Amino acid sequence: MPCECDPAQAYEELKELADAATRAACDMGTIIRNRKLLGELTPETRAWIRAHDAADAKRMAEETENELRMKTKEVALSKLTAAERRSLGL
To answer: Which position among 59, 63, 87, 89 has the lowest Cβ density within 10 Å, counted as fewest Cβ atoms?
Structure first.
């Protein structure tokens, strides 16, 4: 058996650790913001929190847009008869 790392497995393990650290940092950012302690942080940490907040806002906007798109699709499809759906390959 070769003494090698499986890159896919290593990636997944590192991703899980990074995701957990990011969630912890996000939670701490929320607590720090609520306690109005952002000024106590280093400029790098404040920059990370701003970037993370911007990415969260973008993700939430995209999720909302996708939900609206799916609801619109459901409404449109509900107006079609079974025969119309079949003819459209739906």
So the answer is: 89
